[in-house]
Amino acid sequence: MNSTLTLLAYALLTTQLIAQTPVGDGQADDSAALQKLVDAGGSVQLPKGRYRLTKTVTVDLAKLGATSISSDGTATLIMAGPGPALKIVGTHGGTAAPKSFKPATWAQRTPVVQGLEVLGAHAEADGIEATGTMQLTLSRLTIRECRHGIHLTERNRNVIISECHLYRNRGVGLFLDRVNLHQTNVLGCHISYNLGGGIVAVGGEVRNLHIGTCDIEANHDENGPPSANILLDSTGGSIAEVAITGCTIQHTHKAPGAANIRILGAGTDPSLLRREGRATTREGHVTIIGNVFSDVMVNIELRQARGVTISANTFWEGFEHDLLVEDSMNIVVTGNNFDRNPRYLVNGFNLAEQNGVVFRRTDDSAFTGNIVSGVRRHPAAVRFEGGKRLRVQDNSILDSDGEGIALRDVVDSIVTGNLIRDARKDRTGAAPGISEQGCAGNLVQGNLTAK
Fold first, then answer.
1. 349 φ, ψ to 5°?
2. What is the 3-state secondary structure (H, E, C) of 350-361?
3. Which residue in 16, 256, 268, 315 has the most C-beta neighbors within 10 A?
4. Is the pLDDT of residue 245 over 70?
5. What distance in Å separates the CA atoms of residue 314 and residue 248, rounded to the nearest whole number?
6. How far apart are CA 277 and CA 108, in angstroms?
7. Beta-ladder partners of 367
C-alpha cells in the first residue's frame, strides 16, 4: 500500500514538474511554464528551442528583484497571442539622480534580456515592453514579424539597447511611446524594414537619447502613412538632448513622405506656460554628426525645432530634398556633403532624385562650409524663404539647376565667400548666381559666381 502511494506521489510530482518545464518544440503552449520559471527566481537561461507563447510572460521586478532572461542565441520565443512576449514591470518612479532612489530601486536594478529571438505569430504580438525600470539592458536580440519590436512605456531610466536586430515588424522597431525616459543608449543595432518607423519617439518626456553606430534602413510602408527611419515627434510632450552619430540611415523613396530623420519640435511644457504664458515649445538640442543618408523623399526634415546641429554627414538621393527646415531657429549646418554620384544610376533612378536644401521661416541659423552639387528641377540649389540673422558662408554650390542661392524675404543676414559654378555643357538658362527678392539689410559680397 505504501509503495503504491509512493509511486502515485512520484508520478504526480513528475507530471507537475514536466508541466512546469518549457517544452520548446514550437507546438506546445509554454506560456504558463515559462511564467513559472521566471517567477521561481528571476534567473532564466533557456536552452536551444522554439518556445510558443499565447500569453505575455510578465517579469514583476517588485516580486523578483534583479532578473535576467537569456540564451546563447539559440532560443526563440514565438508570440502567438496579443501583447508583448515579455513585459518587464518595475516600480521606479524617480529620476536617475541618486537622491530619487529608494531601496526597492536597487533591488530591481538592471533587468537583462539577452541572446534571444522573439518571433511574432499574432497580429497584435509585440516583442518586449518595459515600464518602471532602472538600467534596463537589452542585448543581442532578434525581434521580427511582431507589431512593435521594443516598446518603452510610462517611465524608465538609463536604458541600454545594444547589438539587436529589429527586423520586419509591422509597427515600430524601437518605440518610445509617450514615455518619461532619460538616459538611453542605442548602440550597434540593425533596425530595418519596420513598417511604422525605425526608432520612433512620440510625446512624453525624452532626454539624453544617444543613437550610435547603427544601420537603420527601409523603415517605411509603401502603402501606409509617412514614416521615418528616425522620428522625434514632440507633439503633446517634449523630446530633446539627442545625439545621432556614426549611423548609416537609408531607404526607401518608394514610400510617400519617407524621411531618414524627421524632427517635429512643437512640444508642450506646463512650466513654460506658468513662466511665460505660453505652453508651446520648439524642442531640440540635437546633434546629427558623421552619418550617411540616402534614398528617401527627404533625408532630414526639421519642423519647429530649435538648436539642431548637422555636421560632417554625407547626403544623396533626396528625391524631394536633402534637407528641409521650416519654422525653426538656431540651426547649424556645416561641413556636409550634399552630392549626386553618377555611380548610383545603376539603381535605375535615372536622375529622378532632386536633392537640394530649403530653409523656410527660419532665424538665427548658419549654413557654412558645405558642398552642394547636382541639384535638379529646383528653382535654386539652396533656398532661404523668410528668415533673419542667417549666415550663408564658404559653401561650394556646383553643377545644379536654377540659381545657386535664392534669398526671399530674408533680412539682416550675411552671404559671403560662396563658390557657385556650373560646368555642365548641357546647361540651359542663365548661369547660376545669387538672387534676392523682398530682402533688406543683408551683406552679400565676396562670392564667386558666373554672373
1. -80, -30
2. CCCCCCCEEEEC
3. 315
4. yes
5. 10
6. 40
7. 333, 392
167: cell is 527586423
CA torsion 73-151-134-241 (nearest 10°) is: 110
Size (the chain), residues: 451
**Which residue reads 550617411 in cell numbers?**
292
User: Vertex 189, ends 188 and 190: CA angle to 5°?
Assistant: 135
Residue 307 C-alpha cell reads as: 538648436
Per-residue pLDDT tens for 420-429? 999 988 877 7
Which pLDDT belongs to residue 2? 55
Q: Decide if 211 contacts 198 (C-beta within 8 A).
A: no
Question: 310 or 5, which is more confident?
Answer: 310
- Record the cell numbers describing residue 417, joined without a space: 565667400
Cβ-contact 21, 33 below 8 angstroms: yes
- Which tens digit of pLDDT belongs to each residue from 91-134? 999 888 998 888 998 999 999 999 999 999 999 999 999 999 99
* Residue at 360: amino acid letter: R
What's the burial of 123, exposed, middle or buried (CB within 10 Å: 0-12/13-18/19+)? exposed
Instruction: Give yes or no for a contact between 228 and 258, defined as CB atoms under 8 angstroms apart.
Output: yes
Average pLDDT over residues 36-56: 97
Strands 280-282, 266-268: pairing kind:
antiparallel
Distance CA 370, CA 359 (A): 15
Domains of the chain: 22-445 (2.160.20)
* CA dist., res. 95 & res. 183, Å (int): 10
Half-sphere exposure of 62 (CA within 13 A, CB side): 7
Radius of gyration, alpha carbons of the chain? 26
Q: Is 41 exposed, middle or buried (0-12, 13-18, 19+ CB in 10 A)?
A: exposed
Residue whose C-alpha cell is 519617439: 201
The set of cell numbers assigned to 85 is 512576449
